[in-house]
Specification:
Cytochrome Bc1 Complex, Chain D, domain 2; single chain; mainly alpha
Amino acid sequence: MRDSRPRASAIRALPMATGAAVAVALLAAAPLAARADRTGKEVVDQVCIKCHGTGKEGAPRIGDRKAWEARYARGLTSLSQSAIEGVRKMPPHGGNMALTDLELERAITYMVNESGGHWSEPINRAKPPPPRSGKYIVDTICAKCHATGVGGAPRIGDSAEWIRRAKQGFDSLVRSAINGHGGMPSRGGKADLTDTEIQLAVTYMFQHSVATIDYEKGQGKKP
């Protein structure tokens, strides 16, 4: 009579085979998990440009302000939904199902901005990027006004003016930058700046301004 019980060697091999299969599956998934979300420009250059570069099949051409004007008036949510589901001759996800929803939103934002819009590129809210340094923000944004005092902005290095403005507390300076003050728009006109980044930028400008104080004379000086 044939023994139908599993042999001991076969039983011992099962965990090994299962473990190997799991390892292979994890290795195969690793590149997908590790891949960083592409920027809008990267997605457009790799995928969208095929149609939106020339206006093929009625796609709004990148740079055609008139063609994009009515579209960006609909807002990012509406445009993204059309791109995800597909619209007219454009297939879902632009024909590339490997694109994430975030990458599609970034691609749309890039095309809108190249066609007269002024949108901020969406970020991955699950993995927000580390805050940019105060120096970087000041050099790329704040310096446009604060380097020379355009529109009455306190000039970097003018210690007396910065100290006068900080009399109500340093937090008041940060709140003014976040909410807008006088001729300065909210967040310096850059909606994607976080509260932390605004604080870093204000701190950087303040510290580099009060450093010009002549403590022996007890007054600030303007370099």
